[in-house]
């Protein structure tokens, strides 16, 4: 019989796996990787106000991966060339980058609408509230350690 741990772990794993597959399939159209979708959308949302280090923190990704992605974006004309020191730069999307981000955002909305079929707005709000609480509590556990009960 499945208990809470298995149920939670398997659901989170499957959601993540399927979301990554969807993102990978969508990003292939632009010659990019699935993880690039989140970077692109975050850059679009924080236009000119976020450093690569902050992007890595927000996305919970390795700084080296973010740096490689930003270099790829520049090569593809999605990101403007840096002006000044790279480590303090605030990457800015080109018009092409903003167009791609807009297209990715629209496709993500379609995917979320399809994945959320049968979920009311109240259920969705409760789900996100619960996920936010769980994530914050788990972060606290990781920072403070798992206390013996």
The global form is: globular
Termini separation comes to 24 Å
* Number of distinct beta strands: 0
User: What's the number of helices?
Assistant: 6
Specify Rg, calculated over alpha carbons: 18 Å
Helix content: 55-70%
Q: Give the CATH level 1 class of the largest domain.
A: Mainly Alpha
Total individual domains: 2
At the fourth level of CATH, the homologous superfamily of the largest domain is Winged helix-like DNA-binding domain superfamily/Winged helix DNA-binding domain
Give the H and E element order: HHHHHH
Uncertain segments are none
By CATH, the topology of the largest domain is: Arc Repressor Mutant, subunit A
CATH structural architecture of the largest domain: Orthogonal Bundle
The SS-based structural class is: mainly alpha
As a percent range, the share of strand residues is under 5%
Describe the structure.
The chain is 68% helix and 0% strand. The protein is built from six helices and no strands. Helix 2 crosses helix 5 (95-115) and helix 3 packs across helix 4 (63-75).
């Amino acid at each position: 019989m499945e208990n809470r741990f298995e149920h939670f772990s398997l659901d989170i794993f499957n959601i993540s796996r399927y979301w990554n597959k969807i993102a990978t399939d969508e990003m292939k159209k632009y010659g990019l990787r699935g993880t690039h979708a989140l970077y692109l959308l975050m850059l679009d949302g924080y236009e000119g106000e976020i450093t690569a280090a902050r992007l890595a923190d927000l996305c919970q990704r390795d700084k080296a991966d973010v740096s490689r992605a930003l270099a790829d974006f520049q090569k593809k004309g999605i990101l403007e060339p840096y002006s000044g020191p790279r480590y303090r730069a605030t990457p800015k999307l080109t018009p092409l980058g903003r167009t791609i981000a807009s297209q990715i955002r629209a496709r993500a909305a379609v995917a979320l609408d399809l994945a959320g079929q049968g979920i009311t707005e109240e259920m969705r709000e409760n789900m996100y509230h619960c996920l936010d609480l769980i994530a914050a509590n788990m972060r606290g556990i990781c920072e403070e350690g798992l206390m013996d009960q």
